Amino acid sequence: MLAVDGGNSKTDVCLVAEDGAVLAAGRGAGFAPQSAGVAAAIDVIGETAARMMPGARPPYADHIAAYVAGADLPIEEDRLQAELLARGYSSSVLVGNDTFALLRSGSSAPWGAAVVCGAGINAVAVAPDGRVARFPALGRLSGDWGGGSGLAEEVLWHAARAEDGRGPATTLTDAVRETFGTPTVEAAVIAFHLGDMSMERLHELVAPLLVMASGDPVARAIVARLAEEVALLGTVAMRRVGLLAAPCEVVLGGGVLTARDPLLTALIEEQYAARAPHATLLVTEVPPIVGAILHGLDHLKAQPSAYDKVRAHFRQPAQGAMAGGR
Hints:
alpha/beta, Nucleotidyltransferase, domain 5, six-stranded mixed beta sheet, five-stranded mixed beta sheet, 17% strand, Kinase, kinase, transferase, kinase activity, Euk-type_GlcNAc_Kinase
């Protein structure tokens, strides 16, 4: 089985046997079907597979389990699946959004809920009977708020207004100046506008935001809103498939959440305690590729020992429940 974790910045591919043995692994460029196109995104998988298995020719495996960014809608999953089948990499292909891999990697069962907050933010819930609740996750167009990119933009917005007098004073102005080495926030804004500074650097504002939230009201308000969004996404998805009334695991992933910032973690716990008192929150730190592999093993109807072998291979810290069991 060929497992794929396609992210915005990199694509991980693993060849895994039915007994859970990882036979080969490789890493390629980012998986970006929205900007580069479906064909170019699938090229990344093929190129990575070819590098990690020198001399091999398609088909590379009996089944492909690909869980990727950019597959936010079922029609996008279908297009990626069709392209993979057309390449002949395997005669059996399943493509899903990467939130499904997060859920599978962190939960003790193939069902539950998952919320990811990395560069973006998204959630999914899967009921024991297979019903699924998901979101378009198309940014502001589909009502989303948060994620590392959104948080960074909020920091810059508040810092700019504080500096020129349109908003309340905040230490976020200092965070912007120090992070980008500019004399003023305005200078940083202009540098981004003119292209003198890459927009990719915006994410550097997330870490100081979390640090300053403990003592700065403006920063705390941003973090509090993120906690509310993380809870809203998870509980709304759970409600849609009937998971609120009984115990349910909610897996939290993505760089912003796996950093386990004390304030953000506490605020998320409070939100879930009020909205979903039966939920158990789990923060997983295993690589996202693990979820894709486990989905692939599900398809192959592998033995329980195969799942244990995969987790042992990656040797990552086991996911843990948040304080208070929530």
